[in-house]
């Protein structure tokens, strides 16, 4: 299939055939083996969440992974502190993949868990990770733009490679970040990741759009909703997929936006 840039065709989220997303092809290309960039991201979010709960208490809390897709490691990163984790996902194919993974996730995810287990909070979980995952994780199909009805519901959250990877619209990108953060309670720790200057991507035979964002756009999308946060750029030495210049990871805490009108 001919490579296209997301700049060739302007696509909003509603225009995309999400039913055509191929989770098996996506996992095979991105997560069958642990990439150095993902290992670095795991270290960041592991330390962020671990540091938060060492200071604030051990939970249990409720967590959400927005746009979970075919990626389990954000949920694994929240698992020690959650008695429930919602994998919120639009694509019917990804929902089916996630539902199968809840009962007994595939062995390729063990290498991601092993990185997390370099921290005691994960290593001392007390039960087998698959057993814990099966107990606390549930899958909910939905559009992230509808998260407005769940305002301040979850106590920690993740959103990985979603806001910039489902539209070419900068307005929709910013709204997606807003919907994610508004769904979190004040003070909730969060982590989010973004493909920097992505031109779009293939999953199997299908092309999916992306919004061209860098550090400045990521910071701007977070500022109204995160009181304290860090934004870090990872420059890929060996690109996981074509058509981007690096990865951006943001982590911090949800602020109180009681004076900010709902967008």
UniProtKB/TrEMBL annotation:
Supply one GO molecular-function term.
methyltransferase activity
Instruction: Extract one GO BP annotation from the record.
Output: methylation
Gene3D superfamilies in the record, alphabetically?
A: Vaccinia Virus protein VP39 (3.40.50.150)
Instruction: Enumerate the SUPFAM superfamilies for this protein.
Output: S-adenosyl-L-methionine-dependent methyltransferases
Please name the Pfam families in this protein's record: NNMT_PNMT_TEMT (PF01234)
InterPro entries linked: NNMT_TEMT_trans (IPR000940), SAM-dependent_MTases_sf (IPR029063)
Q: Mind listing the UniProt keywords for this protein, alphabetically? A: Methyltransferase, S-adenosyl-L-methionine, Transferase
Q: Does the keyword Cytoplasm apply?
A: no
Stored PANTHER family: NICOTINAMIDE N-METHYLTRANSFERASE, NNMT/PNMT/TEMT FAMILY MEMBER
Could you identify this protein by its name? Methyltransferase
What does the record give as the organism's lineage?
Bacteria, Bacillati, Actinomycetota, Actinomycetes, Kitasatosporales
